[in-house]
Amino acid sequence: MAFLHPLRRFVLLIDEQPKRTAGSLELPSAIMTDRLDYVVAAVGSSEPDPGFGVGDTVLVDDPTAGRRVTLDGVRYRLVRASSVVGVVEPC
Q1: What 3-state class would DSSP assign to 81?
Q2: What is the dihedral of CA 15, 17, 18, 19, to 10 degrees?
Q3: Which of 19, 40, 58, 60 qualifies as a FRET site for 11, CA 20 to 30 Å off?
Q4: Is-contact 88 59, C-beta < 8 A?
């Protein structure tokens, strides 16, 4: 199983996963998304104290921020830590 550990001041977020039909066909996703909340999968090694950690849900400043990466069928988004603008706190 492959996993990407971000370097320097980058954060790996779990991206929206592809939607599949009952027959396991992958449905095409929209090019543009208005989603801004993602779960943190990993934080770069040089980021001293970003204010969030693995498992936290964070908000990014732009729905197109970062680069999409697929590893072992799981979609991630690699963004700069500076693109994270908030942490979602449970009520």
Answers
A1: helix
A2: -140
A3: 19
A4: yes
- Rg of the chain over Cα atoms, rounded to whole angstroms, equals 14
- In the numeric block, the tokens 């970003």 are attached to 50
CB 75 within 8 A of CB 20: no
What are the tens digits of pLDDT across the range 65-74?
A: 999 998 888 8
- pTM exceeds 0.90 for this model: no
The stretches of 1-91 forming alpha helices (DSSP H) are: none
pLDDT in tens, 73-83: 889 999 999 99
Query: Quick one: residue 76, left, alpha or beta (phi over 0 = left, psi -120 to 50 = alpha)?
Result: beta
Q: What is the pLDDT of residues 40-59, one digit of tens each?
A: 999 987 767 888 999 999 99
Strands (E), 27-73: 37-43, 57-60, 67-71
- Are residues 56 and 43 in contact, defined by beta-carbon separation less than 8 angstroms? no
Q: What's the gap between Cα 40 and its chain centre?
A: 6
